[in-house]
Write a structure and sequence with these properties.
FAD, Trp_halogen, single chain, 23 strands, FAD/NAD(P)-binding domain, 18 helices, alpha+beta, six-stranded mixed sheet
Length: about 500
C-alpha cells in the first residue's frame, strides 16, 4: 500500500503538489504527505503570471482569494499583450491581446466573418478586449471570490504565493514540513525508491516520491538517470536577465502581462502592487550578453537598473524523456522547461499535480500501468505546449535579425505544427483540430495568436445563414462591450477595495 508520500522541493511546484494531494486524501487519515525543502537552495521564483485554471485549483484548496491579493501583491490578469511581434516596417508599432474569454459566441466562430471584414481580431470576437483597453477589473467588489464577470487569472509574487500555499497545505491538509538536504536515495531490487538520505535526519522511508527539485531534477534526472531531451533546435531562447523593479511613482497597474518582442527574443513585464517583474529573454546564439544587458538598461532605465540586482537565469529548453519512473514522478521545472511566454511554468505544474492527484495509484501492483498512462498524457501535453510557443515565432514576419529568420526555417518547426499551419492556410481552425483534452492550449488560444498575428488564412465563402448569424453576433459583442464598460470599475479601484474590504467568501 502507498501511504507515505514525500514531496522533495518547495517553491510553487512543490506546494501545488502538496495541496493537490492533500485535498485528494483529506478524508483518508492513513495517508501522510511530507514536503522536504532544502534550507540551503533558493527557489527560482520567476513565474509570476498564471492562466484561469489556477483559480479552480485555489478554490478547491480552500485558499482565500482575498488572502492571495493581500499577501502575494497580486493583480488581475485579463490577457497577454504581445507588442511588436510583427515587422514594424510593414505594420508600424503593432500589438494584440491573447485574451482569456472564449472567442466563440455561444459556439459560433466569428473568425470567418472577421477574415472578410478585418480589424483587430480580439475586439471583433470578444467584449473582453474593450474591458482590457479601458484597464477595467474583471469583476466587482460584490462578486464572490473566484467568481467573475469576464475570465481572469493573476500576477503575483511567486515566493509569497509559495508561502501562501505552504500555510494552506500544513493547516488545512496536515502536510508535514521538513527542512533537510536530500543527498542520496536507496532503492530496492526492483529499482523503487525506499529511502531518502538526508544530511540532517539520516534515512527517511517513503512509499512514493515527487521530485520538485527544479532544473536540477536531482531525483528523476540525477539519481534515476531519466535523460533530458533538448528542444533547443526548435526554441532558441536560452537565457533570461530577470530584475525586480520598484515603482518610482504611483503605479498604473495594467491588468495584463506585457510581452514585447526584440531582435533575439522578448521581454516580460508584469505589474504587481509592490513592484514590476521584468525579464529580458534572449538567444545567446543570436545576441551577446553585453548587448542584452544594454537593451534591458534601455527598457528599464540605465540609472534605475544600476541600483538593482539582475539575475541571469540559464534556460535549458526541453523535457525529461518520461516524467514518472518506478515510484518517482517529476513535477515543475524538474519535468522540463519552456520559456515563460504563456505562463507555462505554473500552468504545467498545476496541470501535472492535478493529474497526479486524480490517478494516484493505490499500491505498487498498479504503479506501472498508472505511470505509463501519466507519461503518455504528459508527453502529449508538453509536446503541444512546445508547438504553441513555437507558433508565436514561426508565423512572425519580422526580418530584422537572423533570430526571426531562423525561427521560420522548416527544420525548426515541429511536424505536428507544420501540418496544422498548412491546413489553416485554407481553413479556419476548428475544434476537431484539437482532439485531446490534454492539449493544454486549445482552439481558443490558437485563434487569438494566429489572427492577432494576421495569419493568412484564405478568406472563406460565407453561407448566407452563417453570415446573418455572425453579423448579428458581432453586433452583440460590441453591445456586450459597452455594457461591461458601464458595469465594471477600474482595475486599480478594485485592488484598493479588496485591500480595504476583502472579497465575499463563497
Amino acid at each position: 500500500m502507498i501511504r507515505n508520500i514525500a514531496v522533495v522541493g518547495g517553491g510553487t511546484a512543490g506546494w501545488l503538489v502538496a495541496n493537490h494531494l492533500g485535498q485528494a486524501f483529506r478524508h483518508l487519515p492513513d495517508y501522510q504527505i511530507t514536503l522536504i525543502e532544502s534550507p540551503s537552495i533558493a527557489t527560482i521564483g520567476v513565474g509570476e503570471g498564471t492562466v484561469p485554471a489556477i483559480r479552480y485549483s485555489l478554490k478547491k484548496f480552500g485558499v482565500s482569494e482575498t488572502d492571495l491579493f493581500n499577501q502575494c501583491d497580486a493583480t488581475f490578469k485579463h490577457s497577454i499583450h504581445f507588442i511588436n511581434w510583427l515587422d514594424r516596417n510593414k505594420h508600424g508599432d503593432n500589438g494584440y491581446h491573447h485574451l482569456f474569454s472564449n472567442p466563440l459566441l455561444r459556439g459560433l466562430d466569428l473568425t470567418s466573418l472577421w477574415l472578410q471584414q478585418g480589424g483587430d481580431y480580439a475586439s471583433f470576437v470578444s467584449p473582453q478586449a474593450t474591458v482590457v483597453a479601458a484597464k477595467l477589473a474583471p469583476k466587482l467588489i460584490t462578486t464572490a471570490e473566484y467568481q467573475c464577470t469576464v475570465p481572469y487569472a493573476y500576477h503575483f509574487d511567486a515566493r509569497k504565493f509559495a508561502g501562501l500555499l505552504h500555510t494552506n497545505a500544513t493547516r488545512s491538509f496536515q502536510v508535514k514540513y521538513l527542512q533537510a538536504d536530500v543527498t542520496d536515495i536507496r532503492t530496492d531490487e526492483a529499482g523503487f525508491i525506499t529511502h531518502l538520505m538526508t544530511a540532517q535526519h539520516g534515512a527517511l522511508a517513503f512509499d512514493f516520491v515527487v521530485d520538485c527539485t527544479g532544473f536540477q531534477a536531482s531525483l528523476l534526472g540525477e539519481k534515476l538517470k531519466i535523460p533530458f531531451q533538448s528542444c533547443a533546435d526548435q526554441l532558441f531562447t536560452d537565457t533570461a536577465l530577470a530584475v525586480q523593479v520598484p515603482y518610482s511613482q504611483e503605479p498604473q497597474l495594467p491588468p495584463y502581462t506585457l510581452a514585447s518582442a526584440h531582435q533575439a527574443g522578448w521581454i516580460w513585464d508584469i505589474a504587481l502592487t509592490s513592484r514590476r517583474g521584468v525579464g529580458f529573454v534572449y538567444s545567446s546564439a543570436h545576441m551577446a550578453e553585453e548587448k542584452a544587458y544594454q537593451k534591458l538598461e534601455r527598457y528599464v532605465g540605465k540609472s534605475e537598473l544600476a541600483a538593482l540586482s539582475v539575475r541571469k537565469i540559464p534556460m535549458r529548453v526541453g523535457r525529461r524523456a518520461k516524467f514518472w519512473h518506478k515510484n518517482c514522478v517529476a513535477i515543475g521545472l524538474s519535468q522540463g522547461f519552456v520559456e515563460p511566454l504563456e505562463a507555462t511554468a505554473i500552468l504545467l505544474a498545476d496541470f501535472s499535480a492535478d493529474l497526479l492527484s486524480q490517478c494516484f495509484p493505490a499500491d505498487r501492483d498498479e504503479m506501472n500501468l498508472v505511470a505509463e498512462r501519466f507519461n503518455q498524457r504528459m508527453v502529449h501535453a508538453w509536446d503541444r505546449v512546445l508547438d504553441f510557443i513555437k507558433l508565436h515565432y514561426c508565423i512572425s514576419d519580422r526580418t530584422d535579425s537572423d533570430f526571426w529568420h531562423d525561427n521560420r526555417e522548416p527544420a525548426s518547426i515541429p511536424e505536428s505544427l507544420q501540418q496544422k499551419l498548412a491546413l489553416w492556410r485554407n481553413h479556419v481552425p476548428t475544434r476537431e483540430d484539437f482532439f485531446s483534452k490534454f492539449e493544454v492550449f486549445d482552439l481558443e488560444n490558437y485563434l487569438y495568436v494566429l489572427y492577432g498575428m494576421r495569419y493568412p488564412t484564405k478568406k472563406p465563402l460565407l453561407r448566407s445563414d452563417y453570415q446573418a448569424q455572425a453579423e448579428l453576433a458581432a453586433k452583440q459583442v460590441q453591445q456586450q462591450a459597452m455594457a461591461l464598460t458601464a458595469e465594471l470599475g477600474l482595475h486599480m479601484d478594485l485592488l484598493a477595495k479588496i485591500k480595504q474590504y476583502g472579497l465575499q467568501r463563497l
